[in-house]
Amino acid sequence: MIDPQPKGSHFIDGTHVEDGNGAEIPVFYPASGARIATVYAATDAVVEQALASATRAQAEWAALSGTERGRVLRRAADIMRDRNRDLSELETRDTGKPLQETLVADATSGADALEYFGGLTGSLTGDHIPLGADFAYTRREPLGVCVGLGAWNYPTQIACWKAAPALACGNAMIFKPSETTPLSALQVAEILHEAGLPPGVFNVVQGRARVGSLLVNDARVAKVSLTGSVPTGRKVYAMAAVGMKHVTMELGGKSPLVIFDDADLENAVSGAIMANFYSSGQICSNGTRVFVQKGIKEAFLKRLSERLEGVKMGDPLDEAVNYGPLVSAEQLEIVEGYIAKGIEEGARLVCGGKRVEREGYYLEPTVFADVTDDMTIAREEIFGPVLSLLEFETEDEALARANDTEFGLSAGVFTRDLARAHRMIAGFEAGTCYINSYNDAPVEAPFGGTKMSGLGRENARDAIEHYSQKKSVYVRMGDVEAPF
Ligand code: NAD
């Protein structure tokens, strides 16, 4: 078992660093509210230490061959898999997500990213461009020092999804986890160093918005990758623009899941459960606006209510438990506020809606029917276990209403009609889509949003384009002609 209290709040230049002068950040186990650790926000001196260390280490790391860099990442993936149980237990303590989930979705998906990008590094090249007798070529070069800012719902995964492509391309990274879940990124740092990463190439500093903005605004930083909410995205993107820095923005959503009459009912219900209640609904890509065609609506609701009886709430460290608490008391309050708003605006509460009478931040899985497009619960990201069911009649209507949102992260469709499925996908204004499924995120496929949900892509070869740049080189083989 990993002691939740880290040896130091930060990890810089290959070692744990502590500075108790920083603001205290308490860490709570969401299933009980008990304090399990304390870390301290980075002081200006700690931020400076991380920036200096990353800047120095980056050149050395970039000078290694791709194969050598890849070997480190792949070794880290192996260590991560070997320690999956311990890492998953820590992730469960930090986030409150059921161990049943963390065992298969957190360190394992982080390891997938390290393995995938570790395998790519040797083949990250430029191009040769023939130009008659002359030619040009491109060099694929790292950006330099990259900053990663994480959200609290998938701390290990987010750290790895950013670190793996960044490091593969020869960058250094300073990662600031969410202040709500600061623990597992430190494990990622330890593992990378155990795997042979030179000190300073991957650093972790703790802190809130202030530390994040110090990092984003520093002239030594070339790129910022944020996973967070749209309001934070706006601020971070604006700060990065001042320094003309590269950005990747993985932001929030209010994604549609469209279920047609001809869909396999059982699969559609499973999809809606995965799209709303996995991780107690705290997933950016969730399909929280569930559009169900009129003919199947009552049957869908009935089956969904029956299936929700299969929720096993309890201590998330118990592997039989499949539904855990929300991450914090604050998040619980926010979600309760939305539920009250849903009731006030006339949505029909079909099930759930209440805090659970036990310690910790538990909220019943909640389903609203008779939701209309203008209701707050259909427009704003709730980031909790609240499903809104909206009825529709025609395909055109469903598509228009699905797209009537400022967000564009994900979208899904359940139907047995293949042509219709592909028409819907072509029409969806969203970056990550699903046919007869929901919320899969394999490292081999790009992941990211459109519209206010962000820009850039994580995972797949696409991420390489966001962590490297090409230098064009013209090579003249003969004499240079000049007018005078
Ligand atoms: P948040 O926006 O509050 O914080 C995200 C990170 O940004 C944190 O590390 C925070 O400390 C930092 N931050 C906040 N203000 C900052 C500032 N002014 N300057 C620099 N850094 C700042 O998000 P959250 O509440 O931790 O996470 C939930 C949100 O994340 C939801 O909106 C969710 O949809 C989104 N999310 C998106 C994805 C995705 O891949 N698209 C994945 C997970 C979560």
Structure description:
α13 (376-379) links the parallel β15 and β16 (386-392). The chain has helices at 44-62, 66-82, 84-95, 99-105, 107-120, 155-168, 184-194, 209-217, 230-242, 265-274, 297-308, 329-344, 376-379, 395-403, 418-427, 462-466, and strands at 10-12, 15-17, 24-28, 35-40, 128-131, 134-142, 145-149, 172-176, 202-204, 221-227, 246-250, 256-259, 289-293, 348-351, 366-369, 386-392, 407-408, 410-414, 432-435, 450-451, 454-455, 468-475. The mean pLDDT is 98. The termini are far apart. The protein is α/β, with parallel strands linked by helices and 484 residues long. Helix content is 38%, strand content 21%. Nicotinamide-adenine-dinucleotide is lined by residues 149-153, 176, 178-179, 208-209, 212-213, 216, 226-229, 232, 235-236, 250-253, 284, 381, 383, 409, 449, 454. Nicotinamide-adenine-dinucleotide binds at residues 149-153, 176, 178-179, 208-209, 212-213, 216, 226-229, 232, 235-236, 250-253, 284, 381, 383, 409, 449, 454.
Put the structure in a nutshell.
With 484 residues, the chain is an alpha/beta fold. 38% of the residues lie in helices and 21% in strands. The longest helix has 19 residues, at 44-62.
